[in-house]
């Protein structure tokens, strides 16, 4: 998987989580905002995560 494919799939997964949370009425808006910030940070660090996964596979 290339870095671009990883980024596309990773972004789609994070968006799906966010969308599911937005449709759930039981989630407190403050907690929703906090989780959105966490997901945004995870998205920002996706190139680092990709590199870490790639290095872990090379080590095996």
Query: What is the N-to-C order of secondary-structure elements (H for helix, E for strand)?
Result: HHH
Structural class: mainly alpha
Report the uncertain regions: none
Count up the helices. Answer: 3
Q: Into which percent range does the helicity of residues fall?
A: over 70%
Q: Give the number of domains.
A: 1
Q: Can you summarize this structure?
A:
This protein is an all-alpha fold and 60 residues long. It has helices spanning 3-23, 29-44, 46-59.
Task: Describe this structure as you would to a colleague.
The protein is mainly alpha-helical. The protein has one domain (3-58). Helix content is 85%, strand content 0%. The chain has three helices and no strands. It has helices at residues 3-23, 29-44, 46-59. Helix 1 runs antiparallel to helix 2. The longest helix is centred in the first third of the chain and has 21 residues, at 3-23. The protein is elongated, with a radius of gyration of 14 Å. The model has no long low-confidence stretch (mean pLDDT 91).
Could you list some keywords that capture this structure?
60 residues; mainly alpha
Topology:
Layout: H1 3-23, H2 29-44, H3 46-59
